[in-house]
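Worked example 2:
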Amino acid sequence: MLTESRFNSIKRIEPVSLFCAKLKCIGTMTLRKILYCWFSLLFNLCLAHAATWDNLQSFKWPTCVIPQNDWRVGIGIGVEYLNLEAKVKDDFSPFGAVQFGDRDQTQKQFQVAPSLEIGKTSCNDYYTGIVASWHYSRAKKESRAPLKNTTYFTHQFKMSHYFNILAKLGYKVTPKAMVYLLAGPSIAKWSHTTNQIKVQKLVSTFKTSQTSIGLGLGVGVEQVICNGLALSINYTHHFYKKVKKRTYMEFVDNLGDGPFVRSGVISKKITPSSDAVALRLTYFF
C-alpha cells in the first residue's frame, strides 16, 4: 500500500516524470482488478439463473395460417352493361369541302359473358386468381356524314367480341365478402367501315378490320351467398391502341356547278375503348 511516508520518500528519490508514470500504472492496475471482479460477479449470476436449452425461446418470423382447401376453381355467367366507344379522326382533305374531322361513335347495350376462374387464398385474407371471360358483343354504331347531296358517306364501328384474361387480387373483409382489383390483357375483334353511297347505291368502301391487344383494369366486390356459390359485381375499362389506315378513293362532288370528280389518298385514325359493368354468378367446385 502506498502510505504517506512511502509517497514522500518516492517523491524525494525519483524524478517527477517517473513518479507520475508509476502512479498512472498503479491506477490502471487497480481499475483492471475492479472490472475483473465486476464481470466475474455478473458471470456467476448468469450461470446461477441460466435456463436449459429446451427452455430457450428461439426467434420466429410471423407466419400465416393457410386454409386446408385454399385453391378454388369456378365457372360463371355474367350479365353486362357495355358502353362501346370509338374516337375517329378523318382526313378527307383531297375531297375539298368534304372534311369530317373528329367524331365519337358510341353504343350501349346488354350482353352475356361466360367465365372461368382459378384462384388461391393465402394468409386467410388475401386472394390471388385468374379470371378468363369471353364477351360476344356484336355491338355496332352507324352514322352518316353531314351531306345532303345525292352522294354521301356512312360510318360504322362494330365490336364483334373480346376476350379477357385478368388477374384478380382480392382482400377478404369478412369470411364471405371480398373486394378485389382486376388487371390484364384484353383481346378485341373490331372493325370500322366507311361507305360512299350515290343515289342509294354503294360506290366504294374503306374498311378497317383489326384484332387489338389492349389492357383491362377494374374493381369489384364478391359475396358468397351459399356453399360454393358467389355473387359479384365489377366495373372494367378496356384500353386499345390507336389504329391508322389509308386508302385511295374517288368522290363525286355535286356542289355548285358540279358534278366534279375528286380523288386522292384519304386516312382515318380509330381509337376504340369500352366500359362494362357486370353482375356475375360463379359456382366454385
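Residues 4-41 form one domain. The longest helix spans residues 16-49.
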